[in-house]
Recover the amino acids of this structure.
């Protein structure tokens, strides 16, 4: 029973179910590298995937830890915080978070020695943003830049890491792989940013009460919903652009069949933005867009559609 309790505490602390948000951009980057550069380093890619997921879990745990600390500092009720709700000891939480960071860093150092400084640069930037997102005196999540930070770090950096790890030792590596990676990553950047934006739309009133000045605070809920909707439209447009540029196979266009499903999900959310009843539609929409894009890209690769 004790092991089950620890497992539940671990899953709650690091929000294990959210790893899909980091896993999907990584898989998209690998699929692009295999299609466009015709190369895939399986061993290195698997190692880096472990590092990416470990760091994602560590950032989630750190967010929960700093939330709990801020509640205690302010004297507010923290009963809804994961650490309080699951009765997680702070020392155990610190051990889990630091272990995940060390695992991710150790793999990163090994792969940097093997592949070069580019991986180190992307990794260090991700570590800095990951800490600053919820740590320090002025965490990013309390500013209007939370959506941009989460979208770029998870949507772009992870995609770029996946591309680089698969082509670093190939003559196909070119000076503009980062720009091509940005085009490929844009759908992920946009839908991941929308997870934060949707969350902030739901929490607008509560956030103002505790001093969080997010993007929704500055532009208002109505305009925030317009931005959210526009990001979904643009994500589909960028899939088409990537295919037209021959960065992805023609078969990837079949991911557009998810448009009616995503439209219905987002319509449900914007009709009544609520964390408990409709927010999950934002997460499901992310999965529909990115999973369909990855699956149809893989199908295109297997069928050699270019």
């Amino acid at each position: 029973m004790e092991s089950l309790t620890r497992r539940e505490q671990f899953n709650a602390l690091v929000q294990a179910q959210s790893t899909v948000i980091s896993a999907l951009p990584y898989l998209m980057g690998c699929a692009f590298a295999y299609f466009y550069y015709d190369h895939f380093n399986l061993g290195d890619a698997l190692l880096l995937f472990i590092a990416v997921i470990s760091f994602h879990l560590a950032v989630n745990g750190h967010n929960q830890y700093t939330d709990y600390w801020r509640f205690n500092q302010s004297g507010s009720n923290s009963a809804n915080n994961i650490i309080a709700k699951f009765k997680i000891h702070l020392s155990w939480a610190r051990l889990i978070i630091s272990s995940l960071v060390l695992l991710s860093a150790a793999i990163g150092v090994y792969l940097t020695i093997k592949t070069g400084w580019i991986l180190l640069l992307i990794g260090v930037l991700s570590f800095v943003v990951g800490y600053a997102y919820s740590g320090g005196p002025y965490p990013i999540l309390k500013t209007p830049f939370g959506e941009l930070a989460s979208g770029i770090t998870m949507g772009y950096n992870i995609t770029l890491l996946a591309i680089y790890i698969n082509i670093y030792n190939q003559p196909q590596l070119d000076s503009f792989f980062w720009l091509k990676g940005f085009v490929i990553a844009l759908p992920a950047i946009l839908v991941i940013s929308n997870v934060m934006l949707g969350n902030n739309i739901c929490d607008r009133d509560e956030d103002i009460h505790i001093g969080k000045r997010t993007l929704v605070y500055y532009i208002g809920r109505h305009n925030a919903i317009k931005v959210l909707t526009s990001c979904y439209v643009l994500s589909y447009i960028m899939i088409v652009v990537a295919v037209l540029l021959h960065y992805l196979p023609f078969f990837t266009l079949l991911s557009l069949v998810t448009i009616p499903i995503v439209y219905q999900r987002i319509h449900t959310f914007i009709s009544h933005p609520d964390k408990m009843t409709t927010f999950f539609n934002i997460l499901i929409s992310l999965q529909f867009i990115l999973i369909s894009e990855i699956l149809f890209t893989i199908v295109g690769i297997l069928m050699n559609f270019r």
Remarks:
- The first helix runs from residue 2 to 14.
- The two ends are 53 Å apart (CA to CA).
- The chain has twelve helices and no strands.
